[in-house]
Amino acid sequence: MGDIKNINYIVNAYGDMLFRVAYQYTRNRSEAEDVTQDVFVAMLKKMPFKSEEHLKAWLIRVAINKSINYLKSSRKKVLSLDENIDVEAKHSETDEIEELQELPEFDRSVIYLYYYEGYSIKEIAKITGKSANSINIRLFRAREKLKTLLEERR
Fold this sequence. Notes:
- The termini are far apart.
- The chain is mainly alpha-helical.
């Protein structure tokens, strides 16, 4: 366990993860960076946290909420064409397979939290505020959709 009172530790430990969560929603590098920054600003106002697990779950939940809110407000502005194309190599795992990007937002989030962050269905339910049964069904359906998309591309 790291020092959850040390801001530098928190930014280094969770910055890339928060960027990936935000990118799953925004699909845009600069918007994901803005969301990540907003999450850290909100965290500074909320400090301290009970444990590192509480901090991580809180950061993910806030990143999801801020991403959704950012999309609602920022999609009205004009984006340059190359803004969506220019994703740095260190963040390339966010688009490992383009089929994943074709899934609905919530399905992408469930798959991301389950496979990339290693959360259990019960933990994802707690983070998202949904029931474990609902998350289990979403995960099953998202896998099926992804499987279909992959098979169509072959």
